Amino acid sequence: MQYYFNKQIEKPNSFCKEFGFSSQTIYSILNGNAKNIAKSTIRKLIDALELRLDFSNPVEINYEILMMKEESDFEKNFKVFYDVPIRELKKSILKNYMSLIVCEGINISEMLNLADKSISELYEYAKSGERTVIFFNRIFGVYSPFYKGRQDLIEKVFERMDFEGEGERYVDILMDIYRKTGSSGKNRKSGLLNLFFRNYARYDIEWNFDVKEIMKDRKSDENYRIVEQFCNHINLPPVCGYISYWCFERDDRDEFISLIVKL
Fold first, then answer.
1. Rg (the chain; Cα; Å)
2. pLDDT value for 24
3. What is the 3 state secondary structure string of 101-159?
4. Residue 63 pLDDT level (bands cut at 50, 70, 90)
5. Fewer beta carbons within 10 Å, N or C terminal of the chain?
6. How many CA atoms lie within 13 A of 65 on its CB side?
7. Residue 90 has pLDDT above 80, yes or no
8. CB burial class (10 A; 0-12, 13-18, 19+) of residue 243?
């Protein structure tokens, strides 16, 4: 970033005096001696120079500009949680988590437990990492139509679980399942479940042919019985669950069956 900041800072001594920078720090950057610039220094430079997102900026600058915006949004957004019933908060966390493609760095079990325990402790946990800050912001804002589309699919699953008027009880069961599979924040298990449920919503439609007739031999498949038992456990009609199971690649199907048979 040496070349970039040399263009931005024309009078280093005056700049340091005006914005409270150490001349050693600034000259180290301008002379190319600073191999790794501290995040706090980059952010202070962004504020001092009033930098905005721009394709001409170094990647590191744009990244910090985006994260500063995320953190600012987070502080405003999270205040809403203090007035939201705990149950609705947990359901929002779960829906947002089930919308994720990559679950790494997000410990759903920890978040649900902290929501039960203390909103203040949940806040401290959420603000401690970039991934969790972004995660909670996505509960409140639509940053991409694709992300919103995935959230809508999960909402459809919740509605389907409620077809007998007992949806909240089955959401509780679903939370317990995710507490078991998403406790490390590093594994693929929750990601497989997320994809299964989103595919369920995609294929839970009115077909122009008899799906059960097409899959009339499904009950001879041992894995169908496992999927059926899992779907019955959370109040989802199993035929569509079996279709969702077949959306996986072969290795993922085997892993999914190994996962749900233990739940």
1. 24
2. 96
3. CCCCCCCHHHHHHHHHHCHHHHHHHHCCCHHHHHHHHHHHCCCCHHHHHHHHHHHHHHH
4. very high
5. C
6. 17
7. yes
8. buried
Query: Among residues 175, 58, 78, 183, which one has the least CA distance to residue 128?
Result: 78
| Identity of the amino acid at 187 | N
Cα(228)–Cα(222) distance, integer angstroms: 10
Sequence-distant (6+) residues with CB within 8 A of 220 are none
Q: Which amino acid is at 54?
A: D
Q: What letter does residue 246 receive in the DSSP assignment?
A: T
Q: For residue 42, which of 21, 24, 23 has the smallest C-alpha distance?
A: 21
To the nearest 10 degrees (0 to 180), the angle between helices 250-260 and 222-233 is: 50
Measured CA to CA, the distance from residue 254 to residue 5 in angstroms comes to 53
Q: For residue 62, what are its two tokens? A: 């744009």
SS3 at position 11: coil
Dihedral sign computed on CA atoms, order 228, 262, 136, 56: negative
Average pLDDT score over the chain: 92
Q: How far apart are CA 254 and CA 248, in angstroms?
A: 9
Contact 174, 135 (CB under 8 A): no
pTM: 0.88
CB-based contact 92:140 (threshold 8 Å): no
Token readout for 8 is 């931005």
* CA 192-198-200 angle, 5° bins: 100
Whether the CB-CB separation of 64 and 72 falls below 8 Å is answered with no
**164, pLDDT greater than 80:** no
Average pLDDT over residues 74-90: 93
